[in-house]
């Protein structure tokens, strides 16, 4: 493993306890709601925040444990901050060369390395431009080039695309994936955007309240979310129930029929597009149905997402035509229905 870390930071009323392992060339994304401890974990890895206990071992070298704390400036770590933190009075070239100059590299060699990286990032024509004159995507690439200039073995990215508009973000995300593919060290990416994580990362670690609640490949996490936050992140409804054969008992004396035979505590995952709404209780083909009331309606491009209070409470994706036909408005009574074969079941 390139990075083997267990970050423990105790701040009294809030504690972070996050184990991480990233192989050489691997990209791990840390996801979680605001205040979950993502940035605290990143700052501890960088050496900018002392740990209460735990360890950080990079390429077999201990950077932090109960006895050792290698200062940030002496760690082979590159950091790209959310706001990039480029020096405003320096050109792009001087920004990229800064870390090398600070570590003792002579000016000519540092500038030559900076020019090499700027050319690689297709910014050679902007070498003499100051940050204020760069676009958001250009500034992000300069910040990444500056982090890579010192040949780090660990690259830390704190919301690297958050400052970009939607159009620029899509292009820069693809570029960043290409650059990360070429980096042979370990990368840890902090983000709250599931698309950034799914596109850029090989492994996901989801933290809530300072603790890891789920980890795995993007496909594993998306297929079987284990908390409401993760379910919302990947666009699923997540219900908890007790299975007895093909029936799963939920809260408030509600039960659903599912495909296959299951026993014990289980999660049920329902895609919003798999749930249908009706003005009256549906009959005919076998399906689960329950009464509810529309809480809110939200436009999401070509679809309308309805939040429906049950129990169970669910999100439902509808066409605009269906919303009009059913005359849906907040407060409207409806019946929800989903086929047993559309309910994914997995153990708690």
SSE layout and pairing:
Blueprint: E1 3-10, E2 15-22, E3 27-31, H1 38-46, E4 53-58, E5 61-64, E6 77-80, H2 92-102, H3 107-120, H4 136-149, E7 154-158, H5 166-181, E8 186-190, H6 194-200, E9 203-208, E10 211-216, H7 218-223, H8 228-233, E11 237-249, E12 255-270, E13 276-278, E14 288-300, E15 303-309, E16 314-318, H9 320-326, E17 333-338, E18 343-347
Parallel strand pairs: 3-8, 3-9, 6-7, 7-8
Antiparallel strand pairs: 1-2, 1-4, 4-5, 9-10, 11-12, 12-18, 13-17, 14-15, 14-17, 15-16
Helix pairs in contact: 2-3, 2-4, 3-4, 4-5
Strand segment tally: 18
Categorize the overall geometry. Answer: elongated
> What is the residue-mean pLDDT, rounded to a whole number?
91
Order of helices and strands: EEEHEEEHHHEHEHEEHHEEEEEEHEE
Which range best describes the helical content: under 10%, 10-25%, 25-40%, 40-55%, 55-70% or over 70%? Answer: 25-40%
Strand content: 35-45%
* Largest sheet: number of strands, sense, barrel closure: 6 strands, mixed
Structural class determined from secondary elements: alpha+beta
N-to-C span: 29 Å
Strand order of the largest sheet: 6-7-8-3-9-10
Helix run count: 9
Radius of gyration, CA atoms, in whole angstroms: 25 Å
Low-confidence blocks of residues: none
């Amino acid at each position: 493993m390139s990075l083997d870390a267990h970050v423990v930071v105790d701040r009294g009323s809030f504690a972070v306890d996050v184990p991480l392992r990233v192989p050489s060339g691997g990209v791990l994304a840390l996801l979680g709601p605001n205040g979950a401890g993502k940035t605290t974990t990143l700052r501890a890895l960088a050496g900018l925040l002392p740990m209460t206990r735990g360890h950080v071992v990079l390429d077999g070298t201990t950077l932090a444990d109960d006895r050792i704390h290698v200062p940030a400036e002496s760690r082979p770590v590159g950091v790209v901050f959310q706001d990039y933190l480029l020096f405003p009075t320096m050109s792009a070239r001087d920004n990229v060369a800064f870390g090398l100059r600070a570590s003792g590299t002579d000016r000519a060699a540092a500038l030559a390395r900076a020019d090499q990286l700027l050319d690689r990032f297709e910014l050679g024509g902007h070498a003499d431009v100051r940050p204020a004159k760069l676009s958001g995507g250009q500034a992000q690439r300069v910040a990444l080039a500056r982090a890579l200039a010192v040949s780090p073995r660990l690259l830390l990215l704190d919301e690297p695309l958050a400052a970009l508009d939607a159009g620029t973000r899509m292009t820069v995300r693809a570029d960043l994936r290409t650059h990360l593919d070429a980096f042979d060290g370990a990368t840890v990416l902090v983000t709250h955007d599931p698309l950034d994580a799914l596109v850029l990362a090989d492994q996901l670690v989801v933290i809530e309240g300072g603790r890891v609640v789920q980890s795995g490949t993007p496909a594993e996490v998306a297929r079987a979310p284990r908390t409401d936050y993760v379910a919302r992140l990947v666009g699923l409804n997540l219900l908890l129930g007790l299975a007895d054969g093909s029936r799963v008992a939920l809260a408030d004396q509600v039960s659903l029929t599912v495909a296959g035979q299951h026993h014990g505590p289980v999660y049920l995952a329902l895609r919003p597009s798999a749930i249908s709404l009706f003005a009256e209780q549906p009959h005919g083909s076998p399906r689960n149905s329950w009464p509810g009331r529309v809480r809110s309606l939200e436009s999401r491009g070509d679809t309308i997402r309805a939040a429906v209070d049950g129990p169970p409470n669910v999100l439902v994706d509808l066409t605009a035509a269906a919303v009009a036909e059913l005359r849906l408005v907040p407060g409207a009574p409806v019946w929800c229905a989903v086929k047993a074969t559309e309910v994914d079941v997995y153990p708690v």
